[in-house]
Automatic annotation (TrEMBL):
The species this protein was found in: Bifidobacterium tibiigranuli
UniProt GO MF annotations: DNA binding; DNA-binding transcription factor activity
Pfam families: HTH_1, LysR_substrate
Record protein name field: LysR family transcriptional regulator
PROSITE patterns: HTH_LYSR
Family: Belongs to the LysR transcriptional regulatory family.
Alphabetical keyword list: DNA-binding, Transcription, Transcription regulation
Domain annotation HTH lysR-type: ranges: 1-58
GO cellular component terms given for this protein: protein-DNA complex
Organism classification: Bacteria, Bacillati, Actinomycetota, Actinomycetes, Bifidobacteriales
Amino acid sequence: MTLLQLKYIVKIVECGSMNEASHELYVSQPALSSSVKELENELHIEIFTRSSQGIALTVDGAEFLTYARQVLDQAALLEERYKNAKPRKQLCAVSTQHYMFAVEAFVEMINSTKSDEYEFTIRETRTKDIITQVANMLSEIGILYLSDFNKDVIGKLLREKHLEFHPLFRAPLHVFIARSNPLAAKRKLTMDDLKPYPFIQYEQGEDGSFYFAEEAVWPEHSPKQINVTDRATILNFIIGLNGYTVCTGIDNGDLNNEKIVTVPLESDETMLLGWISNERAKLSHAAETYLAKLREVVATHGYTLIDA
């Protein structure tokens, strides 16, 4: 079945006769009749009844005509959208774990955009959702980390979904704590130091396996634990509840530096930050720009790029 055959059916109905339709379509009547017959044979229905008085739609034909018009309307919308000489607006969607450097780069990308029209999306979301959204092409880029603990499980999931992981930089572990916290003056912290304080982590939903946790390490036993879903809440809880969370250590103006500090965490574990893409898709110009800005932001914060 082709769009041309659908156009033939609609035109025949509009004209009321095969002969008149053939003239308007600049197609010979035998060729038009043959095309309709091929379609009927393919679909195993009769679209028209033929008699000495002319042609008429069958019940199946009337139903088919409704669907044919819908398809042709959608095709017309596609032509209008993509054949229009006006430059198309730029599109880009990014899914990321809760990293301020990812948002900072997104702002830089938008500020560098010279297009009069664009539609950009950034989703700070759960680890498994990031993978799913890039696999389903809802996002072009996903940002997450690998560690010695999670790399086998995350790597297997990425391969199954035809996704590629591109290393960006490696970060030693840090913690975010309130500047008023007694531990804020220490040059380095241990998990034992943090035991008296509430541990705050990003909630991972029903698939909340440790392998999907945004925190590369966590206390073996934490009598005080808070699960949150967004970055603003976690920062407020660090300040208001004297809690802490494990992070990369990269901060920016959003962090409210007069109230929160980052302190290195004593750990053999590190976070390999990177971005994932769908191996079946080609990145848009906007996505490429975002990656360039992401590298610039990371370098500005003093980290050595892996894939620069």
